[in-house]
Design a protein that fits this description.
It holds the Pfam family Polysacc_synt_3. Belongs to the polysaccharide synthase family. This is Lipopolysaccharide biosynthesis protein WzxC. This protein folds into 2 domains: about 170 residues, no CATH class; about 250 residues, no CATH class. About 85% of the residues lie in helices and about 0% in strands. The chain contains 18 helices and no strands. The two termini are about 15 Å apart. The C terminus is likely disordered.
Length: about 500
Amino acid sequence: MASSLAHSAARGAYFTLAAQAARILLQLLSVVVLARILSPHDYGLLAIVLVVVGLGEIFRDFGLTSASIQAPELSTGQRDNLFWINAAIGVLLTAIMYSLSWAIGAVTGEPDLVGISQWLALTFLLNGLATQHRANLMRDLKLRPLAVIDVASSAIALAVAIIAAVAGMGYWALVIQQLVTGAILLVGVVAAGRWWPRRYSRAHPVKQLVNFGWTLVATNLIGYASRQIDTVLISFRFGTAPLGLYNRAFQLIMTPLTQVRSPLQSVALPVLSRVQQDQPRFEAYVTAAQLALGFLFGIPVAIVAGLAEPAVDIMLGSRWAEAAPMLRMFAIAGILTTVSFVGYWVYLARGLGADLLRYSIVTALIKVVCVVIGSFFGVLGVAIAFAVHPAIAWPISLAWLSRITPMPRRQLYQGAGRIIAVSAAAGLAAWGVAQALAATDAWVQLGVGLAAGLAVSAVALTIPVYRRDAKTLASFVRLMLKRDGRSD
């Protein structure tokens, strides 16, 4: 049983990582192509509306995705009821968003936002219908079809958006991209799950699941408000063009990380939930998860931070040069949030919703204070504040968790220290090379800097503790590549 679960988790991670690697490539392609056609103003408009959409998405999900995955048992009737709850919320939010579209345009002084808001309101309906179909696939660890659906939806939506942008549709290309993604995801998860919900029945109570979901809604609302405070401050204090620069720098780093971390939750959460009563196995899984996330993504992100200037020049073009220092700050933030992300999984796996809410309130207040102070130093000041926040919040997270549930606190601190140390060394090596070759072509800086960063990372393997970490990762990869067993 233990071997089967480990194999299912590893194979699930394999398909998830493969899919997210493809999605990251598509995201980078989107940035490279669309950023050369569309303006910072276009991206700024969409960023404003997506703040509202993101807020609505918290209510649309209502925490019921995590609730259904985390539940030790979930009957067919309960699953049907959860579907209708999510669908009803999606319909309601679509109507609310459409009604608020004129107010959004008036408050921001951007009349273009009215039409954008009205069309993006449809995403609530699409996602509401897809929520439990997707959760059902995740719960059953059927991650291969889910991976295919995610990649296909992103690829088709990007192709349509590029066509629309080339046709001169401006910001509407970005709106179309969002809608096409949602539509294809809905069709895909329904087809893959082969499950047709029956009518709502009171004979299958879901009160406990809804209560768990509600605590996650409150937690996510607090987290979302703290995450969006930077967008709101920049849009009102500095305008849509600076917001567009900030948003593109953010998307280059944080979106790929999110695309990897969040889907990996679909593997980690059901696995950790199943072994939560076996403390040694639970701690081993948590520690291995941190190492996998930290080393696999911390080192590349650190190298990108060191090569921020040539990376922005190549990916976005010369008119986006002001985004480079912001990109560097987001990379630092990305590394710190990645090494601490397993803490969030522990809260969910052990059903610690109320404790997660209290912790989120504290860290959200810290985030708001950091960003408000940073805003007095311009847009770059906001980006610096974004990097400072996780450096403060991460130790609080570990201390908080250790008080309420058994945690391998010392191992997580040590693992994070090793990850940050080798990532920083790789990033500094890449930065030093880029500075030395500043007069050369951006591609030369990028290539040589990348080689320098990877070389420094390889040198770390001469240190025994890093060799042990490498063996842990190698064992995980071998599990992923085994052909026996099932994850789909």
